[in-house]
Amino acid sequence: MMQTLPHVVIVGAGFGGLWAARELAGAPVSVTLIDRNNYHLFQPLLYQVATAELAPEDIVYPVRSIFRHQKNLQFRMAEVEGADFNAKLLHTSIGNIGYDYLILAVGGINNYFGIRSVAENGLGLKNVNDAMAIRNQILKSVEMAMQETDAKVRQALMTFVVVGGGPTGVESAGALSELLHLVLPKDYLGFDFSQTRIILLQSSNRLLAEMPEPLSKETVAVLTRKKIEVRLGNPVIDFDGTTVTLKDGQTISAHTLIWAAGIQAASLAGKLGVRQARLGRIVVDPTLQVPDHPEVFVVGDVAYLEDNGQPLPMIAPVATQQAKTAVANIRRLLAGKPPENFTYRNPGVLATIGRNSAVAYFGRWQFHGFIAWVMWLVIHILRLIGFRNRLTVLSNWAWDYFFYERAVRFILHGPCDESDKLLICSLPDDTK
Ligand SMILES: Cc1cc2nc3c(=O)[nH]c(=O)nc-3n(C[C@H](O)[C@H](O)[C@H](O)COP(=O)(O)OP(=O)(O)OC[C@H]3O[C@@H](n4cnc5c(N)ncnc54)[C@H](O)[C@@H]3O)c2cc1C
């Protein structure tokens, strides 16, 4: 029976793919959802995994559990390697999969803007592995600094550079400051945390460019109060693992560089023979269809569509709204109707700068301080998937808020190889 129904294949179980799959519940189609991971990741809280506030399990949710009751959907864990749009066929790590309609929602990857040394020695923040690598690096740096006798090396170990003045960079720097100034000093008695330096670098002259200027200035003021050095208008051009070099020639001795400066389209976008725009995003029609392939829709970070002459931002509301339009258009095509154009409704922007402090911008309305922080907390808790996740995240936040404690502080030992970014290889290995 199922085989006779039109087959909709969705690639990616991120915000776009998940919302599209949910919208298809009860539709007269069979749905196959494909992702290389068996979970949905709530990326907006990744920085809290990186700064030891949450465990990875708190912000991921198994895809199979989400769709346990959706009878028309099957999930396949697989890597999509390419496609033949003319034959309506996907090439995947588990074989070819045919489709009648395809929704591509493969998101993005870190973008180092061609700075190879930063890609090799810096730490991006895009997935669970990235967040764990950052957490290991921070905790290991403090352990190593505590034992270091050379003052210069100790200072470099305790210098943390965050690159990127968007919400992710601001949030990471704020959380890092609280970890290093409020939480860890309780456990490292006798160690002088006042030598800690956190430097937030932004290539342009303003933080949080999507917010009005007064909120950007407020953000700089709050970060400065949190002992974070904010440096604007001076891009990073090199990082060799111990020295960060800026465009004007200045250098910073630091062992940790967290890269929160950019995202580009997932690599699959470049393997499909379709037109790509800035950042490798796939150019789509206003209906979200790929030109000349009306049965292929692209949504989320990987889709390139302009709104008022500007590319739509790579944020979750764009992905979820586009997913709904793509599904509505598939339903229209099935009913013999023409597809409709996508219209973006901007729900506003929020960024938290740490305890009791955030900035929020909703069109005519601007908020900062405690009220914006409460808004941020409520919105993020509501958006998290799974009651259990909401409960554990809330209890972790409450514990941290009242007791200045972060639960997830173990250093995970990884395999030692040349690309190891976790500084683990310097530990003696007595497990062999
Ligand atoms: C650290 C961080 C913080 C953020 N904070 C915010 C925020 O506060 N607010 C906000 O609105 N947005 C935020 N964003 C952006 C937001 O997460 C993205 O815009 C959103 O996830 C895009 O949704 P998507 O469905 O396009 O892609 P994603 O959610 O990235 O999902 C893509 C999925 O595709 C899968 N995939 C990719 N390639 C393949 C392949 N070849 N084969 C199989 N599967 C594949 C991936 O595993 C992934 O599950 C943040 C992003 C990051 C990295």
From TrEMBL:
Keyword annotations: FAD, Flavoprotein, Membrane, NAD, Oxidoreductase, Transit peptide, Transmembrane, Transmembrane helix
GO molecular function: NADH dehydrogenase (quinone) (non-electrogenic) activity
Keyword Electron transport among UniProt keywords: no
Stretches assigned to the FAD/NAD(P)-binding domain: 7-323
Coiled coil: none
Gene3D superfamilies noted in UniProt: 3.50.50.100
Reactions listed under catalytic activity: a quinone + NADH + H(+) = a quinol + NAD(+)
Span of domain External alternative NADH-ubiquinone oxidoreductase-like C-terminal: 348-403
Enzyme Commission code(s) on record: 1.6.5.9
Transmembrane regions: 365-385
Family: Belongs to the NADH dehydrogenase family.
Protein's name in the database: NADH:ubiquinone reductase (non-electrogenic)
Organism: Methylomusa anaerophila
Name of the encoding gene: yjlD
